[in-house]
Amino acid sequence: MKGIGLLKWGIGGLIAYELLNLMKGGSKKVLRPPGAADEDEFMALCIRCGKCNQACPYDSIKMGTEKHGLGMGTPYFIARESPCMLCEDFPCVNACPTDALRGISTVYDVDIGVAVIDTESCIAYQGMRCEVCYRECPLIDEAIKLDIHIKPDDNLHAIFAPVIDKEKCVGCGICEQRCVIDNPIAIKVKPREDSGLF
């Protein structure tokens, strides 16, 4: 009998441990649609109805699977595959019935995350002329600017280095999708609640 009690206790502890891992499991690591409340509030408000997914004209919004733990059934997007295109009328926000997505009138209200540049991978930082992320940014000269300067070891050539303004970047991920470098990618959008660097 004592052994059975210990077994139950062990199984209960294992289940609790796995649930804790699921709760930590990554919902704060995904990119949410525009207007998402802070993650804990978002998880409480989102009823997993899929209306934002259906409303997205670019099919950018996906619904979480079992690998997202307690985020299963909640909306997210993968910037490299299909970023948020910052629709003028934000149909995903308007479709949300519970205010899990809310408060977006213009592109400047969006706060999905922030782009981070890996200067080791970015060819512009290595001296090759590339302005793709800068040119494709919907907030050109605001969210991404160019730091143009002479290459330190070469007085004839300039570096056109993209620089992210963290206050202006809305985290749409268009720059990440359009980046010409692939392994590793040179620019990546981090969710606003994920403070880690590249």
UniProtKB/TrEMBL annotation:
Question: What SUPFAM superfamilies has UniProt attached to this entry?
Answer: 4Fe-4S ferredoxins
Q: Name one Pfam family in it.
A: Fer4
UniProt keywords, alphabetically = 4Fe-4S, Electron transport, Iron, Iron-sulfur, Metal-binding, Transport
* Keyword Electron transport on entry: yes
Q: Does the keyword Transport apply?
A: yes
Sorted alphabetically, which InterPro entries does this protein's record hold? 4Fe4S_Fe-S-bd, 4Fe4S_Fe_S_CS, RnfB_subfamily
4Fe-4S ferredoxin-type domain sequence ranges:
35-66, 74-106, 160-190
Any one Gene Ontology molecular-function term assigned to this protein's record: metal ion binding
Name listed for the protein in its UniProt record: 4Fe-4S ferredoxin-type domain-containing protein
Species name: Robertmurraya siralis
